From TrEMBL:
This is Lysophospholipid acyltransferase (LPLAT)-like uncharacterized protein. Transmembrane segments: none annotated. It holds the Pfam family DUF374. Residues 230-252 are annotated as: Disordered. Residues 68-141 form the DUF374 domain. It comes from the Bacteria. InterPro entries: DUF374. Coiled coil: none annotated.
Length: 252
């Protein structure tokens, strides 16, 4: 292991990076003028709570912006070393972090899948205890294709999935499979909540696939709508590698 990697995996360094990241996210939240759609969503969201906030993976750094003062939100992050910094940052943003692998589609076929069943149980407990769970819906390593895992969580918990998109007009686009974006300060922001998707406990395989497609379409709709509200195109295009980090937009 290189010296840089050893330093990066130091608990003290990760703690410092996590604190800095949390402070930066608060700066982005405070300095962007956010539009929320639908307007005045609090009564509606309160009636749905606790719910599963479905997000595309590349927006995981800003999903904490949806948290209202009275909300209790949990999310799941892998136990990898890279997840430690995200855990510290999100904790400082008021989000409870569950350290486990996500409940992906393979959990349906194999409950012994590495970490998947454990993560599913932890999220079910969180929802039962009244916490909203923010969960990325993508198929692992395939951007913006809804996976069975989030629908499985909805099926076993009885709670609705609410598609959520949080974007800013100024952001960095990273060269990663999920086309992750990091918001920049001093711009415009949009937070869009979509039509809830509910999954019956006794759903048939055909109906399950139809709901998966419905969720995927609604998540893409709210994502596109959020970019429309900030007046910037989403320059993602089709899934796959991109040439390199791409700064989108200019100071608003």
């Amino acid at each position: 292991m290189s010296l840089i990697k050893r330093i990066g995996r130091s608990a003290a360094v990760q703690q410092a990076l996590g604190i800095l990241a949390g402070g930066y996210l608060r700066l982005v939240r405070r300095t962007n003028r956010f539009t929320v759609e639908p307007a005045d969503p609090d009564p509606w969201l309160d009636g749905l709570s606790p719910f599963i906030a479905g997000m595309w993976h590349g927006q995981h750094t800003m999903i904490s912006f949806m948290k209202r003062p009275h909300d209790r939100i949990a999310t799941i992050i892998s136990r990898s070393a890279d997840g430690n910094v995200n855990t510290i940052a999100l904790t400082r943003m008021g989000v409870r972090v569950i350290r486990a692998s996500g409940a992906r589609g393979r959990v349906v076929r194999d409950a012994r899948a590495k970490g998947g069943a454990e993560g599913l149980r932890a999220m079910l407990r969180a929802l039962k205890d009244g916490e909203t769970v923010a969960f990325s819906a993508d198929v692992p390593k395939i951007s913006r294709r809804a996976d069975a895992g989030i629908l499985t969580l909805a099926r076993f918990s009885g709670r609705p999935i609410v598609p959520v998109a949080v974007v800013t007009s100024r952001h960095w686009r990273f060269n990663s499979w999920d086309r992750a974006c990091l918001g920049l300060p001093f711009g415009r922001g949009a937070m869009v909540f979509g039509t809830p998707v509910r999954v019956p406990r006794d759903v048939t395989p055909e109906a399950f696939e139809a709901l998966r497609q419905q969720l995927e379409a609604e998540m893409n709709r709210v994502h596109d709508r959020a970019y429309t509200l900030v007046g910037r195109p989403d320059r993602v295009g089709s899934p796959g590698p991109v040439p390199g980090p791409d700064r989108v937009g200019s100071p608003a």
